[in-house]
Structures are given as structure tokens and as C-alpha cells.
Amino acid sequence: SRWCLITSHKLYSSVYDPNEKTFEKLLIANRGEIACRVIKTCKKMGIKTVAIHSDVDANAVHVKMADEAVCVGPAPTSKSYLNMDAIMEVIRKTRAQAVSLNVSICCSFLSSLSLQASEGVTFIGPDTHAIQAMGDKIESKLLAKNAKVNTIPGFDGVVKDADEAVRIAREIGYPVMIKASAGGGGKGMRIAWDDEETREGFRFSSQEAASSFGDDRLLIEKFIDNPRHIEIQVCTIIVLADKHGNALWLNERECSIQRRNQKVVEEAPSTFLDPETRRAMGEQAVALAKAVKYSSAGTVEFLVDSSKNFYFLEMNTRLQVEHPVTECITGLDLVQEMIRVAKGYPLRHKQADIPINGWAVECRVYAEDPYKSFGLPSIGKLSQYQEPLHVPSVRVDSGIQQGSDISIYYDPMISKLITYGSNRAEALKRMEEALDNYVIRGVAHNISLLREVIVHPRFVQGDISTKFLPEVYPEGFKGHKLTDLERRQLLATAASLYVAEQLRSQRFLGTPRIPIAKSKRSSWELSVHLGDGTYPVAVSKDGSSFSVEVDGMKLNVTSEWNLASALLSVTIDGAQRTIQRISRNASGETSIQFLGTVYKLQILTKVAAELSKYMPEKAAEDTSSILRSPMPGTVVAVSVKPGDMVSEGQEICVIEAMKMQNSMIAAKTGKV
């Protein structure tokens, strides 16, 4: 039920041939949703799986799904998931015939990969030459030039220090992009518009690169203003000593909605590309793959300007996070194709066989607070978790479950939410419904931001670029802005919910209690506080429906009023809404998720509202002299000491959270 089933394309490899033998046991040196994704295909192919995990991941979903699981170290990735000595020992101990690695960091462990090959262990992915060549952005750019692939103007060597970075940036011309040579996922990447930002960018990018990839080398290239981020998924059959030499391009993915150079919303195909540009990009992607004798599934990333000129960005030698949208429109199981290629089988398809069937959209659901820089990490335990799999044509790739912990040690991704439709409008409508029906409690999440993006007129029209978020929300994301009609709908729903709960509290199930006097009350006068306003609301009951008067207008609110359910379907004057009541307390305060955004309301009877003005208000805490980290993380540097005088905007310390470094600055001039 988790897959986008494309029944008209069963001839593709979504159907497994049991007579095609591959491996008996495969070790997955990864965690989270991608490890779970690989295990699902292995189960379909009859392959036993071995999971590795850190001590804090002992109860993780991928550990429970695998046939075997082995702990490889403590929580930090460098001591567990990137501990190649421990991983090699697990391979020997479990006698795994193949291994699926987090190959975005494999460049640091090429000797281990070679050792695996010498011991008869097959790596699910490209050979070490391709990983080394494409994992190094400097070398990959040179290879791309030689393969006649369009590249971005810039400096092709290694930047030695901040002074050289400034000199190169001036020669190229601002703005420039500073990026880690071995980087990926937006880490070790900074945009600089002047000399000062170049020096700061060099410092943070090199530190992030060393922390995340064990390689602090940087390169600098021209920043393409107002670009679209488009990817071509590449699949080729050459593996190790095999000489088949075939390569396919599997259409494009649109990945322009980003924050901090990390993708948030992806879709396939792109609204921007025409068939000619698509073919040209695909052919250049295949040419690059053949130039490095690539043999697996990989991703060639391009930047495309407004005139449809495209430039090579990088090639990722791994299964990308957003691969499900490609699977949905082609009918291919890319994990299965990678395993088949690793075993030496030829691809069963020609370029003419690869379709664009329908439209797919993916939203990355993160444990983040979208109201802080479009998403600063949040940690905690998932106290309640319910995926929207009851919505048609929805796929959820996740590696967590109710009760899972989101910690500071790993990426804060909760899941990848994918919807599929016969066209873009249908896929977006299903995504809107899926986001409304997604229940996540215990941590902050970015559902509100995702929903606002996919319904925004600019996005719906396909007018998007990598600057979409800062252009649409120049003052930062503030949540959904209610129209007058939506405000009345929310007030009417909240008031009806309050009355339904009052009526339920009068019933005593299973108790033969006889009330002294039957309550015949059928109307309520309430006062509802929302935002900066307080609104008188009149509610009257008519069967299972409520007639609610707000702003002199009457609205009819109907629902089953199952107050124990995390989701509540409400019909307001014929308009269906799915809401979630997040919290409530005895003072009438309640939080309701409506149109993706959580709104705080206070609902009181008319009498209680009149008396509430006599209640003393709690004084707000004075935080003007305190520097408080906006997210959980590790203090990696402190730039001041007690007694120092600091000015407004001066760096106080550096916090690292989820492998990203953030400079904490003073909000005012003062003494530490």
C-alpha cells in the first residue's frame, strides 16, 4: 500500500523475476528511511538483510525490519555508521555477499571498498573509480568539461585559504558559491556577495566539510542567479569488469524549492523543460556516465537559467532521497535495478521504453520549526504518529514509528511523502489532502510550510526557482494567513468542537446514573480569542450539526465528532476540512491544526470571558541580555570570554546541529 502502483507499466522491473538469482544476504550500511527502502526491495527479491546501527538506534525501524542487526558503535556517525573497520568486521561475521553503503562519503573509504571486492563482497553501486571521480567536485567538473558537458564558470582547483578565496571570488565576480569538494546535501556550501561573506563562508564551509565528509577542500564557482535545480536520474549497466556499456536517462526531477541549499519539495517531471531541453540534458548526463564508466543508479544535477541554458552542477553516486518521484513516473524500482546491475545482469530496457507516466510530487517532512529560518531542527519523542496511507495514491518512505526519538546526532527527516496523479494538478491536490491527514506529535515539524508551498499560486503556476522561499516569504515564514471566510470557518469549527466536548462530558457511559434534572440546553454564547481579536460566537445544536453565528453570518458545521480521533473531518457549509486538535487545557486554551497551520485559540463562555479581565497576566521573561540557542546542538566554538565587550552582530559562539554550523551573534552591545 506504500507504493505508487502503475498498473499499465507492469512490464518494467517493479515486478520481480524469481528465476533471476542475485545475492543471498546483503548488508545495509545506512540508517533511517533509505535503509528501510532497501530492505523492502530485498524482501521482494528474496534477499536476507543485515542492518547495522549505533547504540541509540537499537530500536530503530530499520533494525526491526532486517533479518539480522549488529551494533557498530556509539551515536556519533564517525564512530558508527562511518566506522569502516567495524562495518568490515560485520561483513565478515555475517558473511554478507553484498553491501549497500552510504556512498556519499565513500570517497574516504575507497581502500575498504577495494578490500571488499578482493574478498568477494559486491558493492551495490558504482566502482571505486566512479565514486572517487564524481565524489570529488573538482575532478568531476574537469571530467564533465572533457565529456563536453556544460559547466558553470569558476576556479577548477583547490582553494588554499580565505585570502585566496577572496582573490578568486573577485576574479570570477560576485556573487559566488563556495562549496565542499566532497560535499553533498547542502552541507559545506555558502553563497558570498562580498569579501567579508567570502571569508566567513570559507571558514564555515571548510569546518562543515571536515566534520561531515572528512575532507575540508573547497572550490569556488559563479553563483547562477535565479536558477532552477533540475536533476537527471542516470542508470547504466556497466559494473566492475562487465562490458555491456549501456546507459539510460530516466527523465528529470524538479528540485528548486530549497532552504539552506537543501531540497524541500521535488517533483517529476519538471514544468519548465521542453522535450528538446530534456533530451539534451539526458544525453549529456549519459555522456558523463559513460566517460567515468559508471555502473549503477546515479544522479546528475544541473542548474537551468531562465533561457533554458543548463550547467552541470555535480553527479551524486548514490540513490538520491528524491528517487521515489522517478520511480512513480517510470514504473522502475531503482533499488532492484542497482542490485541487478551489481550482480552483472544487463538492463532490460532501452531509452525508448522509458515513459513519463503521470506526475509525482515529494515533500520532505522534517522535525523542524519552519518559523525559524524556514526550518531549524527539533528533537524529541514521537508521542503520536500516523501516516496518511488511507489517502489514494500516497507513498510514505519513513524510518520511524510512534515512540521513535529524533536526536541531535542525525538528519531530522521524519519521512518522504509522495503523491501521484495522472497530471500535476491531481498530484498536488492529493498532496494537500495527505499533508492535512498526517499526524505528527511530540516534535515540531514543517507540515505547515510544505502545505503553503504547494498551494501557493506561484508554485501552482510553475513559477519557481531556488529563491522561491525568500522571495515569497521575505520576512520569514509566518504560517497560513487566514482569509475572512477561513477565519470564520476556524472560529465556527473551534466553537462546535468546544460544545461537542461539553455535551460529551455530561454523559456517563456504563453508569446507571439518573440526572436530577435533564439538560435541555440547545444554545451557547461563547467568546473565542484568535490572534489579536476576540469574537462573540453563538452556537445552537441541531442533531449532529451545529449552527454557528460568527460576524453576523451563520455557518452550518457537521461532523461525526469522534473526539478521541487524531483526525477530525468537518464539513462547513458544504466545504470539507480535515482538522487536528493538538492540545487543550482547563482554561479554554486549545490548539487546532487548520489548513496545515496550528492556531492557538481560547474559548470561554460569555460569563467566563467577562470575568477573565480580572485575572492577572504573567509578565514576559526579559531575554534581551541572554543569548539562547534557537535549536538543540553542540557548542563547537566560543568566541568570547567573561568580561569581553561585544557589539551588536558580533559572533559569540558556533552551534553545530544535524551537521550544519550556525553562528550565534549578540543581539545588542554589552559586556559578557
From TrEMBL:
Lineage top rank: taxon: Eukaryota
Entry's Gene Ontology cellular component terms: mitochondrial matrix
CDD domains: biotinyl_domain (cd06850)
Coiled coil start-end: none
InterPro entries on file: ATP-grasp, ATP_grasp_subdomain_1, BC-like_N, Biotin_BS, Biotin_carboxylase_complex, Biotin_carboxylation_dom, Biotin_COase_C, Biotin_lipoyl
Residue ranges constituting the Biotin carboxylation domain according to the UniProt record: 22-474
Keywords: ATP-binding, Biotin, Ligase, Lipid degradation, Lipid metabolism, Magnesium, Manganese, Metal-binding, Nucleotide-binding, Transit peptide
Pathway: Metabolic intermediate metabolism; propanoyl-CoA degradation; succinyl-CoA from propanoyl-CoA: step 1/3
E.C. designation(s): 6.4.1.3
GO molecular function: ATP binding; metal ion binding; propionyl-CoA carboxylase activity
Lipoyl-binding domain sequence ranges: 618-672
Protein name (Swiss-Prot/TrEMBL): Propionyl-CoA carboxylase alpha chain, mitochondrial
Record organism: Hylia prasina
